[in-house]
C-alpha cells in the first residue's frame, strides 16, 4: 500500500472527510477569531529566514502535519484584510460562501477553456448577470480573469486590435503607421500604464489628462489633447477613464467622456475595478449608469463584491472583436455556440490569453446568488455611509484635515495640528510616522497616498463587518497617536 503522503494513494471518502473537517475547523477558527486579533502582526524574522532559504521537502509528510505547520506558521500572520479595522488599499474580506466555493471548485478542477460541462455554463451565467448590471448588450462578451490589472489589459488589447488601423496581430505595432496614442486620467491606476507598455504602445504615448479639484479627469483638456494629436498626424486610440480611482474614489465624468470618444471615434474604456460595483447602490446609480456606454469595462468581484481573490472581470461591448483579438482557432474549427456535443458554447480560451483556465466563476456565482444584487446594494451603501461618517468626523476635528472630497468609500486625510502650520515637510514626516505607528500597533490599518504633493492617510471601506464604532475608534487613535508624536518631537 502507498504511504499516506504519496500522490498515487487513493483516499477513502472517510479520510477525505476527516482531513476536510479539520480544514473547515481551521477556516471557522480563522474567520471568527480574526476580528479579535491584532489587525496586523509582522512575520517573525526567523520564520521569514526559514521560508526564504529553506530547501525543498524531499520526503513527504502526512497531511495533518502539513496542516499543523499551516496553523503555527501561516494562519497567525494574515495580511489583515477581513479585520473590521483594516482600511488599507482595496482589500475586502472574503465572503464565507466564496471561501468554501474555492474548495468546491478545486475539487472539480475543470479547465474552463471551454467544452460542454457545468463550469462553462456557470461562467456564462455570471457574465450574463454582469451584462445586466452594467447595461451591456447581448452581443457583448466578457471573461473572468485574475483581477483588475488583467481585466484592463485584455480590454485595451481589444481596443488596440480594433482601433490601430493595421492588423496588429500580424504586423505588431511596428507596422510603420501613425503613432498610437492613449488618454489616461492623472489619477488612473498604474496597471493602465503597465497594460500600455505590455501592448507595445509605449508609455511615451500615454497622454496624462490632468484632474480637477475633485480628482476627476478634465474633459476639455482631454479633448484638447486629442485634437493636438490629430493635428500632429497621430492616431488617438482609446480613453481609459476611471469609475472609482484607487486614490480617492473619484468617478470621471463618464457620459461626457463617452461623448468625446464617440465624436472622435475613440475606444471608451472604463476602469471600474474598484468602483463599478457601486452602480448597484442607489446613491451612485445615476453617476455610474454611463458605464453602459463604454466599449469595455473592468470590474473586480474580488474588491467590492467580497469574492475571495483572485476574481476580476472584463466586459467588452463588441464580443466578436474580442474573439478576433485573441482567437487562434481557424474559423473552420470554431464552435458554433451550440450547447450540444462536447464542444459546448463558444470557448473562453478564444477570448483571452489563457488556455487552461480555473473555475473562478463558481465563487462569483455562489456569492451573487447568496447575497443577491439587493444584498450587495445595501452593503455597498453601508460602506459608503461609513466613509461619509469618517469624512464628517475628520472635518469636525480641529487637528485633522480632509485631503480630498470623500467619494464612493474612500477617505483621504491627514493629521495637521495648528502648531505645525503649513510646514509641508514636517506634516509629511509626522503623518508617515503616524501611519507606521498605527500599522504596527495592530489596532487599525490604514494605507497612504500622495495628493497634490502631500503625503496623506487613506481609508477604503470595503468590509461589511466594519461599524461606526470602528470608525470612531480610528479617529481617536489617529488623533491620540498624532498628539503623542508631536509631543515627542
Ligand atoms: C481602480 C483600480 N484599478 C485597477 C486595480 C488593479 O487591480 P488588481 O490589483 O486586481 O490587479 C486596482 C487595484 O486596487 C484599482 O483600485
Question: What does this protein look like?
Answer:
- The protein has about 500 residues and is of the alpha/beta class.
- It has three domains: about 15-80; about 110-360, Aspartate Aminotransferase, domain 2; about 370-489, Aspartate Aminotransferase, domain 1, CATH 3.90.1150.
- It is about 45% helix and about 10% strand.
- It is built from 16 helices and eleven strands.
- It has a seven-stranded mixed sheet with strand order 1-7-6-5-4-2-3, with helices on both faces.
- Strand 8 (about 400) and strand 9 form a beta hairpin.
- Helix 1 runs parallel beside helix 3 (about 65-75), helix 6 (about 150-165) packs across helix 8 and helix 14 crosses helix 16 (about 470-489).
- The longest helix is centred in the last third of the chain and has 36 residues, at about 360-395.
- The chain is globular.
- The N and C termini lie far apart (about 70 Å).
- The model has no long low-confidence stretch (mean pLDDT about 95).
- Bound molecules: pyridoxal-5'-phosphate.
- Pyridoxal-5'-phosphate binds near residues 147 and 149.
Amino acid at each position: 500500500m502507498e504511504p499516506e503522503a504519496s500522490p498515487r494513494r487513493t483516499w477513502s471518502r472517510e479520510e477525505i472527510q476527516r482531513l476536510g473537517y479539520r480544514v473547515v475547523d481551521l477556516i471557522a477558527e480563522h474567520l471568527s477569531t480574526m476580528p479579535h486579533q491584532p489587525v496586523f502582526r509582522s512575520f517573525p524574522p526567523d520564520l521569514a529566514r526559514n521560508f526564504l532559504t529553506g530547501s525543498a521537502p524531499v520526503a513527504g509528510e502526512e497531511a495533518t502535519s502539513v496542516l499543523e505547520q499551516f496553523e503555527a506558521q501561516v494562519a497567525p500572520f494574515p495580511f489583515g484584510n477581513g479585520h473590521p479595522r483594516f482600511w488599507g488599499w482595496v482589500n475586502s474580506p472574503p465572503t464565507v460562501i466564496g471561501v468554501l466555493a474555492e474548495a468546491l471548485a478545486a475539487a472539480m478542477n475543470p479547465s474552463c477553456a471551454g467544452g460542454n460541462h457545468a463550469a462553462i455554463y456557470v461562467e456564462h451565467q455570471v457574465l450574463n448577470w454582469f451584462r445586466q448590471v452594467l447595461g451591456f448588450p447581448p452581443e457583448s462578451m466578457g471573461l473572468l480573469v485574475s483581477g483588475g490589472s488583467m481585466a484592463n489589459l485584455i480590454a485595451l488589447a481589444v481596443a488596440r486590435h480594433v482601433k490601430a488601423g493595421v492588423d496588429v496581430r500580424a504586423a505588431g505595432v511596428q507596422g510603420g503607421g501613425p503613432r498610437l496614442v492613449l488618454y489616461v486620467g492623472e489619477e488612473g491606476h498604474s496597471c493602465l500604464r503597465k497594460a500600455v507598455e505590455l501592448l507595445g504602445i509605449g508609455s511615451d504615448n500615454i497622454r496624462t489628462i490632468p484632474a480637477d479639484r475633485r480628482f476627476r479627469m478634465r474633459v476639455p483638456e482631454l479633448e484638447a489633447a486629442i485634437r493636438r494629436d490629430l493635428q500632429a498626424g497621430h492616431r488617438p486610440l482609446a480613453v481609459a477613464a476611471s469609475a472609482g480611482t484607487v486614490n480617492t474614489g473619484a468617478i470621471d465624468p463618464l457620459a461626457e467622456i463617452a461623448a468625446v470618444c464617440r465624436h472622435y471615434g475613440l475606444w471608451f474604456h472604463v476602469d471600474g475595478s474598484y468602483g463599478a460595483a457601486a452602480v448597484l447602490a442607489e446613491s451612485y446609480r445615476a453617476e455610474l449608469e454611463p458605464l453602459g456606454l463604454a466599449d469595455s469595462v473592468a470590474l473586480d468581484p474580488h474588491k467590492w463584491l467580497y469574492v475571495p481573490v483572485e476574481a476580476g472581470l472584463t466586459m467588452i461591448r463588441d464580443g466578436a472583436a474580442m474573439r478576433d483579438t485573441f482567437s487562434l482557432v481557424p474559423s473552420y474549427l470554431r464552435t458554433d455556440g451550440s450547447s450540444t456535443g462536447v464542444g459546448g458554447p463558444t470557448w473562453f480560451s478564444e477570448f483571452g490569453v489563457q488556455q487552461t483556465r480555473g473555475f473562478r466563476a463558481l465563487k462569483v456565482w455562489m456569492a451573487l446568488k447568496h447575497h443577491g444584487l439587493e444584498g450587495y446594494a445595501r452593503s455597498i451603501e453601508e460602506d459608503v455611509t461609513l466613509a461619509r461618517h469618517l469624512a464628517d468626523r475628520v472635518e469636525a476635528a480641529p487637528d485633522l484635515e480632509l485631503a480630498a472630497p470623500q467619494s464612493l468609500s474612500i477617505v483621504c486625510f491627514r493629521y495637521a495640528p495648528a502648531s505645525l502650520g503649513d510646514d509641508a515637510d514636517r506634516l509629511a514626516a509626522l503623518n508617515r510616522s503616524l501611519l507606521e505607528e498605527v500599522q504596527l500597533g495592530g489596532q487599525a490599518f490604514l494605507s497612504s497616498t500622495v495628493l497634490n504633493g502631500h503625503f496623506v492617510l487613506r481609508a477604503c471601506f470595503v468590509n461589511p463587518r466594519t461599524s461606526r464604532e470602528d470608525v470612531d475608534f480610528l479617529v481617536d487613535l489617529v488623533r491620540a497617536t498624532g498628539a503623542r508624536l508631536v509631543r515627542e518631537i
